[in-house]
């Protein structure tokens, strides 16, 4: 132990400038990431606003037992999984396709314009985008006017008030906002591919689609696997900002997700112990999904993990 400490001191003195730059980050993580972990004890207590973390009485697993019998929680779980699987099935593939299409563009100025337009929605908050969607989907909004002129519908209606359409609205609006931004990592990887691979493929008579399938996609395998693992681990974490903006009293039955349910139980109803228990349970399941997805990915990649 003494030898290791001595080696650490020697290494620190040799690189003290670089080592010192890490210290603020470590302090930040300790204060804002590790110290708050103590607050998870609320999940095992009957905590109220008049209690402290130490004085609140212990109730063991009672809050978790309530979760198992709470039908509103399980409705939120179903909505969360429904929206998340739609985003996974559609939203995961679209950035890959968009990145390949942008990469294949050879007109430099047009390529930059396409990239800028696709990135722009990411920088707009859900407050702004939600206001736009609420206006567009209203009875006299853009979508109703368009559908009426095309003869698709005969009577306008507020689309956001229809619970049956909410999952698709949440999925497609999220893809619209984030798909362009999601192409950045893929474009960065494709820019590192050796051009001689494509030249050799052309000599062998391979067309553009064959080159994409045999050269581009295999070289993107690692980053695709990493993004897939992170997406799967976040299946239970739907976008809270989006939900709070687009959810209303009419579509709540299909719009309420776990994050908004936790927010409502904790912040609006003051049941902090129950909300913490739900959040803790979701976090544990998310970690299990992360580990499972990583194991499956490593099996499909010759036992090479990307994490």
UniProtKB/TrEMBL annotation:
Keywords: Cell membrane, Membrane, Transmembrane, Transmembrane helix, Transport. One of its GO terms (biological process) is transmembrane transport. This is ABC transporter permease subunit. Belongs to the binding-protein-dependent transport system permease family. The chain crosses the membrane at residues 21-44, 81-103, 123-143, 272-291. It is a multi-pass membrane protein. It holds the Pfam family BPD_transp_1. Residues 77-293 form the ABC transmembrane type-1 domain. GO terms for cellular component: plasma membrane. It is found in: Cell membrane.
């Amino acid at each position: 132990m003494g030898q290791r400490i001595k080696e650490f001191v020697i290494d620190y003195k040799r690189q003290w400038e670089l080592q010192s730059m890490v210290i603020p980050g470590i302090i930040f993580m300790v204060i804002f990431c590790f110290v708050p972990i103590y607050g998870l004890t609320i999940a095992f207590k009957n905590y109220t606003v008049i209690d402290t973390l130490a004085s609140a009485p212990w109730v063991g697993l009672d809050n978790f037992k309530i979760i198992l019998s709470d039908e509103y929680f399980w409705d939120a779980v179903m909505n969360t999984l429904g929206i998340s699987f739609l985003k996974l099935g559609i939203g995961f593939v679209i950035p890959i396709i968009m990145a390949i299409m942008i990469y294949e563009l050879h007109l430099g100025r047009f390529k930059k314009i396409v990239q800028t337009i696709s990135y722009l929605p990411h920088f707009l908050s859900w407050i702004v985008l939600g206001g736009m969607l609420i206006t567009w989907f209203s009875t006299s909004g853009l979508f109703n006017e368009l559908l009426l002129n095309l003869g698709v519908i005969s009577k306008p209606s507020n689309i956001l008030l229809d619970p049956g359409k909410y999952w698709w609205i949440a999925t497609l609006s999220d893809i619209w906002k984030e798909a362009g931004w999601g192409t950045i990592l893929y474009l960065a990887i494709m820019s590192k591919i050796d051009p001689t691979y494509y030249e050799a493929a052309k000599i062998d008579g391979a067309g553009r689609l064959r080159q994409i399938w045999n050269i581009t996609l295999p070289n993107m395998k690692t980053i695709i696997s990493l993004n897939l693992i992170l997406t799967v681990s976040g299946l239970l974490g739907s976008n809270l900002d989006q939900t709070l903006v687009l959810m209303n009293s009419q579509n709540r039955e299909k719009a309420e997700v776990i994050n908004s349910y936790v927010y409502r139980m904790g912040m609006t109803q003051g049941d902090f112990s129950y909300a913490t228990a739900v959040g803790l349970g979701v976090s544990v399941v998310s970690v299990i999904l992360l580990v499972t997805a990583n194991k499956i990915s490593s099996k499909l990649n010759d036992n090479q993990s990307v994490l």
